[in-house]
Design a protein that fits this description.
By secondary structure, this protein is an alpha+beta fold. It has two domains: 92 residues; 71 residues, no CATH class. It contains two helices and five strands; from the N terminus they run H-E-E-E-E-E-H. Strands 3-2-1-4-5 form a five-stranded antiparallel beta sheet.
Length: 200
């Protein structure tokens, strides 16, 4: 009577963590590598994301402390429409403005203003400590949102980097195990043929 071998293979969950005669030391090491990799990927990603968000928030606060708003006057009338090919178009135009700082020194620079504003119009511009016009700092809800988005982008990137490192280590371990199996089969294979009735 011939016995038909089973056609399905039952998958044993967490077999690397259970004692069995087929489990090798490398299997246990691989199981720990997978566990530690996932733990570090999740925790490391979360920590990196929070750190990035805090760093971005601190950078916004630091920049806000380095610039200040001043009231300036347009020296000439602003153009009615933005010049073509001027890059990012936010609907404003470049114009020359003049202001007096807290020490009484007069400064002149170019700033973005509303189109068509006549000469002598009062505008608010942001200036640096060196007396140059700079872009307005990101503050309030916009700063919080950008900091949160920075953290949200960094977190998965950091987690993926950790996971990738773990994958490399695990791949090398698998290759090493396969090489060990090949060496063992070279020794056992010929004897297996003899035990099964084959001619060696």
């Amino acid at each position: 009577m011939n016995r038909t071998p089973p056609t399905t293979v039952t998958h044993v969950r967490l077999w690397r963590w259970r004692r069995n005669p087929l489990r090798r030391h490398s299997d246990v090491v691989e199981a720990w590598i997978v566990l530690v990799t996932w733990a570090l990927a999740v925790l490391g990603g979360a920590v990196a994301g929070l750190a990035a968000a805090q760093t971005a928030g601190s950078a916004f606060s630091a920049r806000q402390a380095q610039v200040h708003a001043v009231s300036a006057v347009l020296t000439d009338g602003a153009a009615a429409t933005p010049a073509s090919g001027s890059g990012y178009d936010d609907g404003r135009v470049w114009a020359t403005v003049r202001w007096t700082d807290a020490h009484g020194a007069v400064h002149t620079d170019r700033a973005k203003v509303q189109p068509g504003a006549p000469a002598g119009s009062q505008v608010t511009v942001w200036t640096s400590r060196a007396g140059r016009v700079v872009s307005a700092p990101v503050t309030g809800a916009a700063a919080d949102l950008q900091a949160a988005l920075t953290g949200a982008l960094v977190a998965p990137s950091a987690g993926a980097a950790v996971w990738g490192a773990g994958w490399v280590v695990r791949t090398r371990l698998i290759r090493r195990r396969m090489a060990e199996w090949d060496e063992e089969w070279k020794q056992i294979g010929p004897r297996w043929g003899n035990l099964s009735g084959g001619r060696g």
